[in-house]
Amino acid sequence: MKRVLAATFMGLLISTFAFAQKSDEEMIVARAQEFADAWNKHDATALAYLWSADGDLINPMGRRASGLTEIQRLFADEQSKAMKNSTYAIKAMKVRFLNPQMAIIDQDAEVSGITNPDGTTITMTPHVMAVVTKSGGQWWLTSVRAYSYVPPPPPPPAK
Questions:
Q1: Is 126 among the domain residues?
Q2: pTM metric for this prediction
Q3: CA separation for the pair 124, 53 (Å, rounded)
Q4: What letter would DSSP give residue 139?
Q5: Angle at 66 between CA 102 and CA 64, to 5 degrees
Q6: What is the tens place of the pLDDT at every residue in 29-51?
Q7: Tell me, what CATH number does 61's domain have?
Q8: CA 149, 110, 96, 59: dihedral to nearest 10 degrees?
Q9: Long-range CB contacts (< 8 A, 24+ apart) of 128-132?
């Protein structure tokens, strides 16, 4: 009887633990929120350490960075200048799995409070495409491209 009770208890414990585990998609969404949280704290080091060691980034202004050191430097520069009072918010996000260890994030964001050289502030609404890879049980940003859409050209003049 004790063995049956112990086996039942262990089965419940194991099944509860299994259900408590986050799904891969939940982990990726949480990683994206970690990015937003680190941005809003203006913590360049925390931002960089969301990337894989060989990761890369191109920001909306076309600046490129490869590897953790360059990515950290890019964020340190941005976060100490125009972005130092900005806030980052995820507006929409989809995750598409390419395989169990790799996914694409397709995200719309809003960065408000960007300071122009004249002291005025603007809001930018970048679109972010990111490849994330799973390693060591964690999802890491591997290749990120953030860009802003350009407005369509004006209509041709009336004839």
A1: yes
A2: 0.82
A3: 28
A4: E
A5: 110
A6: 999 999 999 999 999 999 999 99
A7: 3.10.450.50
A8: 60
A9: 129/104, 129/105, 130/104, 130/105, 131/102, 131/103, 131/104, 131/105, 132/28, 132/31, 132/102, 132/103, 132/104, 132/105
